[in-house]
Each structure stands twice: as structure tokens, then as C-alpha cells.
Amino acid sequence: MSLLRRKSLDTVTVHEAGRQLIPTLSWPHLIALGIGAIVGTGIYTLIGVGANLAGPAVLISFAIAGAVCACAALSYAELSTMMPAAGSAYTYSYTALGEVVAWVVGWSLILEYSLVVSTVAVGWSGYAVGFLHGFGIDLPLMLTAGPHVEGGFINLPAVLITFLVAGMLMAGTKESATLNAVLVVIKIIALTVFVAIALPHFDTGHMEPFMPFGFVKSLGADGVERGVMAAAAIIFFAFYGFDAISTAAEETKKPERDLAIGIIGSMVGCTIIYVLVALAAVGAMSYTIFGQSAEPLALILRELGSPGAAKWIGAAAVIALPTVLLAFLYGQSRIFFVMSRDGLLPRGLSKVSARTGTPVATTLFTAVLVAALAGVARLDEIAALANAGTLAAFTAVGLCLVVLRKREPNRVRKFRTPLAYVVGPLAMIGCVYLFFSLPSTTQLYFLGWNVLGLIAYFAYGRRNAVLGKR
Fold first, then answer.
1. pLDDT tens column, 359-402
2. Each residue of 302-332: pLDDT tens digit?
């Protein structure tokens, strides 16, 4: 059936001239890309959102989200080394599950990456405005908030940082990856400073009641859905990002070795960072205070009598949060690029610049899309909808792992996921459960997004697909 036609594993890495990406990255670049993507808005800003939904039990929310991501990361590690081609979960689904499934996954990835970049841009804007305020510089509300805020019109800093990062990516992949690595080091140092200051102020009284809103998602009197799982579904945003590494497979010099190192190494490093920062935050201050802040870590440090360190955290966020923008904007442009190369999107988007080796048209198109969204959107609503797209992609990757283990048992695997028939199903079950823990409106928006996507597929993608023409 043409809807389920599949790419061949033997030709998935063969591409026509002028539409090939250039291998320039090694494993340090990939680990930095992963940590740069994972450690960002999630820990700098969404820890406050999560604490507001789960109370001190946000620690459990972090553990649950991290466990699900660990299963997904192991699945990605095996599949990316088997298929060192750009496209991530979209490409894996095209070879294992068929074209229409790949389209839905790719469409979901477009949602994920676009909204993540928008969310991080909005989060960066909040830190930038707070940082400047500390020096007596106050930007007008009309230019620092979207229309959902009274007096706001457009979040101009969020728009500007998006185009700045896009310009870096268009200048060259290796150059932007090297700068990213430097900024990641700054970000880790800043979080280490926060833990060193906040952890000695740990007060067990701030941990009571530990689970004020229960475990499962429930609707509160204020109309907000709270609970440990509701928070886990939102702060899941704080863990993913390693999937951006898999989009770099085609640009990696030794993908059979470096992709697994990058994916697993970044997940392990980020889990340690998150546990320490979250523990220090909820122990140092009541979640009812920092849970309402757009810059919770800086707020905690100010309340602890360390305004200088708070300014340093704010400065580090302003400097280093663009690493998240870079990683996800990079991933988004590569998803657009591969879907275009396959003919499911207009082919003009898959042309590679002879000078820089980057898909300039795709990167610019992506920047325009996400900048427009970042200028008017709300952080919490964007994060939840981005999670829906990610959960769909991670579910597909877990399924691809199991399907290809069955269909291609003798295929060479440079990295083999241990207990694949346990890890794959756990990734799927965990992601599906987290999806149904998202706000109901988010689930409906996601359904609407994919209905729109299927209309686009049948109207354009299916009849223009390169695989169909062959």
C-alpha cells in the first residue's frame, strides 16, 4: 500500500548531489549540542512552572520524565548509528513504519522544534529584561511581552535572538557548534554556582507538604490541572534535546561511534545537573514563591542574600540560553531539509549552500516561523504543546527499535540497546502516559495540528514524494 511505502535501509544514506550535508562534527561537538539543548529553559524557567503544579514533589516529576527520556535516548542511540542520516525520528519511521507514519512523526517534530525554539526565546527574553533591570535599564512592556499580557504588543527580544542564532547557523555548522560548546561551559559553571550557594540553605520545612496536589493529574479550583504527572508532562520539556543530536547524524564524521557517545553522554550529564539544581531550589525556598517567577533561580539567590550571584545567573542565562535555541533551530532546519529532500515538502528547501555547506533557505524559513510565534506566545502553553510533538516522536522511535529488531535481526548495529524489547516498550508506554497527563486542551490542539498535517500530506506530500516517483 503506497501509504506505508518504506525507504530502504541500504539506500537511506545515499543522496543526490547538491542536497548532501557535509560531515564536520565530532563527539565533543555532539555532547555540547546535547547538553546545550537539554540544559536550558527547562531548568532555568520551567522548574518554577513544574513546582507550581506539583509542589516539592516536582523532584519525582523530574525523575519520571528523566526515566522515560532515558529509554527513548537508548532507542535513538541504536537507530541513529544504524541510519547515520539527517531526519531523526522521521527518517527512522520512514524506514520502519512507512511514509504516512513518517509524515505524522515529521509533522510532530516540526511542532516540537518550532515551539521549543519559541519557548526558549521567550524564556531568554525574560532573563534579558530582568538582567537589564538590575542595571537600571527598563525596556517598555509593549516591546517585551506578547498581546496576552496587558500592555504588551510584541516580544521583540525573543524575535531578535531567534534571527541572531539563525544567522550563526547559516554561517556554518562547525563554527556554530564550536561557539555552542564554549557557551555550554558558561552555563554549567553558572548552575554549579547556584547549587553551591543554595544547597547549604536547604530547609526540610520547604518540603512539606511534599505532594500537595496528589500524584495523578487533577483539576484544581482555579481551573489548572495539577499533580506530579501533570508536572512531569510539562517539565518533560526540560529533558529532551538529545534528539537534536540524531538530526546531526549526516554531519558527523564518525557517526557509528560518536552518535551514541553524544546521545547517552549528554543525557547522563544533564540528569546529574538537574537533580542537584532541583533539590537545591525546592530546599532553599518555598515553591509557592519561586513557582510564580519567570526567573526562579535568580529570584532564589536574591532572596538568599546573594544579589551578585543572582546577576551572574541572569547574565549566564542571557549568554548561554541561546545554546538551546541553536540546538533546536538546527534540528528544526534539518527536519524541514530532509522532508523537502524526500519531496514531502517543496524541494527548494533542500538546497545546500556551496559556500557554507548549510541549508540556508530552510534555516531562514524556520527562523521566520518561530520568531513570529515567539513574539506573541505564552511560555506555559507553548511548552505543553511542544511536549505533545516530542512524545509522539519518542513513541515512534521506541516502536521503530522493536520493529527493526524483528525485521532486520542480522543488520549490523554499532550500538545495541540493552534489553531492547524492554526499553522500546517502556519508552512507548511512558510517552503515551505522559501524553494523556498533558492538559486536555493541549491534546486537542495536537490532534488539530495533525489533522491539518494529514490534509497537507494528501494535498501535496503524497503525490510529490520522491519515493513514490521512483
1. 788 888 888 888 888 887 665 666 678 888 888 999 999 999 99
2. 888 888 888 887 777 777 778 888 888 888 8
Residue 454 has pLDDT above 90, yes or no: yes
- Which amino acid belongs to residue 261? I
Q: 18, 456, 10, 34: which is closest to 241 by C-alpha? A: 34
Of 358, 26, 29, nearest to 184 by C-alpha is 29
Cα 50 to Cα 62: distance, rounded to the nearest angstrom: 9
Asked if 40 and 186 touch (Cβ cutoff 8 Å), the reply is no
Cβ–Cβ < 8 Å for 243, 89? yes
In this prediction, residue 66 carries a pLDDT of 82
Tell me the domain boundaries of the chain: 22-469
Q: pTM for this structure?
A: 0.81
Rounded Cα gap, residues 150 and 86, in angstroms: 42
User: Please, are residues 373 and 115 in contact by the beta-carbon 8 Å criterion?
Assistant: yes
As assigned by CATH, the class of the 22-469 domain is mainly alpha
Cβ 365 vs Cβ 349: under 8 Å: yes
Is the CB of residue 210 less than 8 Å from the CB of residue 59?
no
Where is pLDDT greater, at 87 or 98? 98
227 near 213, Cβ under 8 Å? yes
202 and 51 in contact (C-beta within 8 Å)? no
Q: Are 45 and 126 in contact (CB under 8 A)?
A: yes
Residues 6+ apart with CB under 8 A from 135: none
Nearest to 285 by CA among 190, 201, 196: 201
From the list 26, 466, 39, the residue with the least C-alpha distance to 278 is: 39
* Triad 294, 296, 300: Cα angle to 5°: 145
